[in-house]
Write a structure and sequence with these properties.
The protein is α/β, with parallel strands linked by helices. It is about 45% helix and about 15% strand. The protein contains 14 helices and twelve strands. Helix 2 packs parallel to helix 13, helix 4 packs parallel to helix 11 and helix 5 packs across helix 10. Bound molecules: pyridoxal-5'-phosphate.
Length: about 400
Amino acid sequence: MLDIAKHLITPSARSNVPPFMVMDVMAAAARIEAAGGHVIHMEVGQPAAPAPSTAIAAAARALSGPLAYTAALGIPSLRGRIARHYRDSYGVDVDPGRVIVTTGSSAGFILAFLALFEAGARVAVATPGYPPYRHILAALGCEPVPIETTADTRWEITREMLLAAHRQKPLDGVLVASPANPTGTMIKGAALAELIEAAEGEGIRFISDEIYHGLDYAFAAETAARLSQRAVVINSFSKYFCMTGWRVGWMLAPEPLVRPIERLQQNLAISVPTLAQIAAEAAFDGRAEMEAVKHGYEENRRILIDGLPRAGLDKFLPVDGAFYLYADVSRFSADSLAFAKAMLEEAHVAATPGIDFDPVRGHHFIRFCYAGSAAEMHEAVDRIARWLGNW
Ligand SMILES: Cc1ncc(COP(=O)(O)O)c(C=O)c1O
């Protein structure tokens, strides 16, 4: 091909984000299933349960009417309902004017990063951590700054770690998730308050990913909304409300950022899918159903905490919240990708290698998602025990 023609179809450098290894695990699992095997899926981080029936009924009713664009910031009654959720669930007053409806929390990150940071901004994220934080920042021309967390701090960034990184080279922002993915660990309220205070004292903008709120077992998750009006809070209907495919989330933005984000949303997406917004508002009336789903995760968590050590996987991080368990497999392998592949092929249990979340130490870890059924958890433990028994 001529150089000029090649140039026309060469992807931009910023689009060169790494793939998600979990997708490779899913593809391998699909091949086993196509050949008649029965795989227990613990690789994908999503609930097996459907959306609340209140949400489904509201969407069904809305389907027969017109589904027009909504206001860019979201349907006003949904924004009001989200604000009320902060009063009901946390006892915090939130101005509905600061609530912005987004296309899942994923779009919330894009909007927040664009509104908060110039290209070249340095934003701290924890490792292990959710890979798209790094990849979205990089695609937007910002620099993700990984901060290695350890067991001593429940695998969360502390005030000291943040300030040390900032002294090394100034940071513009920090993003924290609690409960976190892939570890399922949580930051205590007092530590979150200290961290926000330290960040804001240094002019570091604070973003709190609260997508796994509602799924806390060890202690209650604290919201950054209680601690600061300047923090950006990101959340979603995907996890607690079992609405991953509906693609609807929200964020709380400091008042001066609301109008810039509105302009960005107008231009990037016009508005969030209307049907999903209608369903999301009604989802708040389905909390009793979602609490039952949560109790199922609690039972699954108990089965794994109890069963995995007997199966041979006896080292894992505190299983505080979300629906993840991050297990150290270094006793068996220094290559978590090979370990996950072998476990899938030989035991038909699919899990995600840690390298997706931590390119360095992730070679020693795999992540299990326990959002399936209790029967699947028992079966997974039995299969892993038999498999590791022959190791
Ligand atoms: C920590 C974390 N944040 C954000 C997301 C994005 O979710 P969504 O865009 O469905 O809200 C995920 C999805 O797995 C996640 O694990």
